[in-house]
Structure formats: C-alpha cells, structure tokens
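Priority: medium. Attachment 1 of 2:
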C-alpha cells in the first residue's frame, strides 16, 4: 500500500441538475455529486499512465440543503429508493440525530452512499482526507453526515459470509476513527460541530 500525502490529491467534482438556479429553483432539492480522486504519477515516479494521472478513488454523494426544515421523506423519495431509505432511517429510527445536529436551524445533510479507494492506496486514511475535502468544499454547511458502511462484496462472496462480516466490521472501525457513530442498519452518522475531525 502506498501512502499518499493529501496535498498531492486532486479532486474533480461534478454535479448535474436541470434548470437555472434562481427564484423559481427549489433551493432545497438534493444535489447529487460525483467525485474522482486522482494524484500525479510524478508522486511515485510512475510510468503507468501516459497522461501523468493515477486514479486514487471515487465517491458519489448527495447534499440536501436545509434538511431539517423540509419534508425529508418527500424530498428524498423523489430522488430514489436508496435516498428514501436514508430518510426513513432518520425520520423513523433516529430523529434524535436531527436534534443533535441542530438541523432545525438550517444545516445541510450530507449522504455518502459510495466511496471507493483503490486498494493500492488503502491503509493510510485516504478516505478520511476525501471526506474532509468534501466537507470543506461543496458541503460546507453540513451539520449531519450519513455514510452507508456496507462493504462492496467481491464476486462470489455471499451476504453474511465471514469475509463480509469482517469487511463490515473493518469499515465501521475505519469510520469510527473519524468520529462516526452507529445510526441504524449499515448507516453511520456524524454530527458536525465547530471543528472537523
């Protein structure tokens, strides 16, 4: 595994929405973002990419503006089932997280259903650096973060297998080091205070 200095990471954010922001645009609509994480081949004197770019990972996440002041079930049901599941967890199983995050004062909700780091770069908290980058750029008003901590299963690895159970436990330990707590099911939650981890 290669250690990466976060200073050498490049983050390429992209989002897509229909329409032009303005008075008619619903400012509380969830916005989906895709993120490509890269570093320069020069960091490793690596000739594997002729363009000098080495892919490090990728993430997909949603920012839900003013999540505590909207009908979260209605807003996230309009997105997809995956986001509706997050809304149902927050509304029915863990409404206390909204209170703890003071969402009623207008904070945003950040949902990270997918983050993948290339195995070559794991073991050095690269995912932590990625989440911090998201929180300090496009998700600056976030007061509550929810991550889906279900590991991606390799082909042929059944649900509930020892490998899956071990991978799930490792992923939970990893995010707990950042400050996440158990929410419900495979979800972990982080209430953002004044200082980021």
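Attachment 2 of 2:
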């Amino acid at each position: 595994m290669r250690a990466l200095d976060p200073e050498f990471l490049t983050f390429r954010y992209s989002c897509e929405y229909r329409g032009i922001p303005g008075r008619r645009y619903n400012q509380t609509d969830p916005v989906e973002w895709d993120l490509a994480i890269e570093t320069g081949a020069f960091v490793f004197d690596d000739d594997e990419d002729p363009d000098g770019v080495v892919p490090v990972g990728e993430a997909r996440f949603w920012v839900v503006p003013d999540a505590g002041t909207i009908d979260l079930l209605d807003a996230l049901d309009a997105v997809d089932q995956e986001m509706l599941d997050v809304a149902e967890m927050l509304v029915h199983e863990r409404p206390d997280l909204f209170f703890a995050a003071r969402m009623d004062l207008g904070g945003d909700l950040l949902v990270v259903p997918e983050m993948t780091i290339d195995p070559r770069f794991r073991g050095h908290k690269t995912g932590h650096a990625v989440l911090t980058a998201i929180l300090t750029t496009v998700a600056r008003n976030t007061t509550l973060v929810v991550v889906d901590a279900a590991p991606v299963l390799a082909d042929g690895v059944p649900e509930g297998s020892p490998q899956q159970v071990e991978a799930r436990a490792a992923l939970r330990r990893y995010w707990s080091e950042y400050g996440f707590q158990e929410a419900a099911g495979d979800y972990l939650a982080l209430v953002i205070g004044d200082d980021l981890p």
